[in-house]
Amino acid sequence: MKDKIIKKATDMFLKLGFKSVTMDDIASEMCISKKTIYKYFSNKESLIEEGTEIVQQNIHTMINEVASRNQNAIAENFEIREMFRQMFLSVDNSPAFQLKKHYPEIYHKLTGNKAEDCHIMFRKNIEKGIADGLYREDTDIDAAVKFYYTLIFSINENTMLEKDAYELEGKALEYHTRAIATEKGLKELEKKISKKLILNI
Known about the structure:
Radius of gyration: 19 Å
Helix content: over 70%
């Protein structure tokens, strides 16, 4: 029952907002009593905290699945981007923005964990891209990772609407890729951008 509550509550938080969804709303949606929810969670904050941890674990698993498909580094980045688009398709307000505004302690804990994961993921992607001949061999990997993370983090922290954040993240990905790409990498990037425009993604 606890896992079911977390799943339903997290879905509602992401779709409707962390602040607006109440424990009564969750109980009503699940056709259970509010007392049942409080059996597992002392308050709404503890439910949000566990829910965001599960979301982070799921994202980590999905990213690993994408990485295991042995695509080239640029294709991998675009697939991860599409994964996030599908995950937050119905979200109007940025989940990161909502957390920061209404539950700052949970937000800062989450971003601390996220920072380490992102640095590892970005580094692996750059190393893979260099091995593929898509990124320049003389790329300063540490600097590239820090620059890209700073861009993505700033977008998520300061952009209220998810669709706006998604568009800006796409620009950041293009900017990041162009900064370190070889001629071969630029051709691969242009193919991905052209396909995205054709599909209107």
